[in-house]
């Protein structure tokens, strides 16, 4: 019966030449694992979305190995027809329970290969990262180049990727080298790769190999994904009949990608592996098929997106970043709210009723922020600071807030609670402040000041928010026409273009 629940990949195929008896240690280990897994998933169902938890349990018990390594949560949600935000939350809960191991990948924005894997974001540095395949360096931004992925814990299910050195050749590229932002799920991947591969081989530590290649003109690269080593060949079109020679040594240390100028024709290429690990060098020619493979992009769960997820903020509160670490975000949307005249409200209805109203308003706002893929960063008095991955999500949340707060007063003592809302989008720095993931920069200051412009039910948003492509559709759907204004804000040089949304 246990075997039947693992139809595609049995955890422990019986050793060749005989069947296992029931009392072997292997069997009891597996039984312990199944029990462990049932307990953990039962715990998960208590905190996470039931559909997401069920899909995860199904994947862990009967999914293929490769589908459990470095899971792209957005792809997972789409495959199982689940709500993205709830699935993200479920994976975070599952990681806390030890069902999955969470990792942060720094990926190259160009080829989307993984350049560094860290257990915590604290190990991501601000100095530029270099990609030897693309021969370029770039600065980390949480918008694109840092992703969060989940791999099943070996405690529940042992998969090949737990020991990458044993992965078959192209599976290493699939499961370890390329990030979850490249769609390499295609069964014909190897056929596609073959169209730009001139040579590919396994080199054990200390081993060397010499191959003869007929070099085509253009750019050719020797690349090893294990040590992340690249060597470019710039091949001139004039053919030579003479055999050219090139020796390349993999030393394991990251070094700048060098270039050798050659001519098209025969090349005797020697590759020596002086690293301590198995190397998987390939010789690739840069052609249309190569671009096609690297161009197979898909949405991935970025650090920025996870930072604006309420569950992430609740579960991973204190240890996200180091105190002196600040990581760049190119675009984040900030929404500030404040209750109008809350002091008068306290005086008018008394502390107890006012307290109930204000508490209710916080609960409503939290719910609306989370439902729109945002997160509350902090509350200051009766004010709320929240972040969203896009201006449109912040706008959608603002509309929902305005409507919900309007009915709070009606439902209770007909006291008018008026919510003043301001929204701005721009770059910022993610930092730790008072043991909390917070944001720093002029964008944050402007968003707070823009909120200060609101005096009634109108929402104030900057030009960056209103003119964002997704915002127009949302405003049209709501039948709202924002009124442009030009204002000066305290502490901000020059005029700021803002819109008042009636
Ligand atoms: Zn790259």
Mind explaining what this structure looks like?
With 502 residues, this protein is α+β, with helices and mostly antiparallel strands. The strands form 5 sheets. Strands 14, 15, 16, 17, 18, 19, 20 and 21 form an 8-stranded mixed beta sheet that branches. It has 3 domains: 3-162, no CATH class; 197-286, no CATH class; 310-501, Alpha-Beta Plaits (2-Layer Sandwich), CATH 3.30.70. It has 15 helices and 21 strands. Helices cover 33% and strands 28% of the residues. The model is unreliable at 1-25 (pLDDT under 50).
Feature tags:
502 residues, alpha+beta, Alpha-Beta Plaits, eight-stranded mixed beta sheet, five-stranded mixed beta sheet, 15 helices, 21 strands, 33% helix, 28% strand, binds zinc ion
List the helices and strands and how they pair.
Blueprint: H1 25-47, H2 50-62, H3 73-79, H4 84-97, E1 100-107, E2 114-118, E3 129-131, E4 136-138, E5 146-152, H5 169-177, H6 189-194, E6 197-200, E7 208-215, E8 218-224, E9 229-236, E10 244-250, E11 258-263, E12 265-273, E13 282-285, H7 288-294, H8 303-307, H9 310-315, E14 327-340, H10 342-349, H11 351-371, E15 375-380, E16 383-388, H12 391-411, E17 418-433, E18 436-440, H13 442-453, E19 459-462, H14 463-466, H15 469-478, E20 483-488, E21 495-501
Parallel strand pairs: 9-11, 10-12, 17-19
Antiparallel strand pairs: 1-2, 1-5, 3-4, 6-13, 7-12, 8-9, 8-13, 14-16, 14-17, 15-16, 17-18, 19-21, 20-21
Bound molecules: zinc ion.
Residues 108, 110-111, 113, 131, 133-134 line the site of zinc ion.
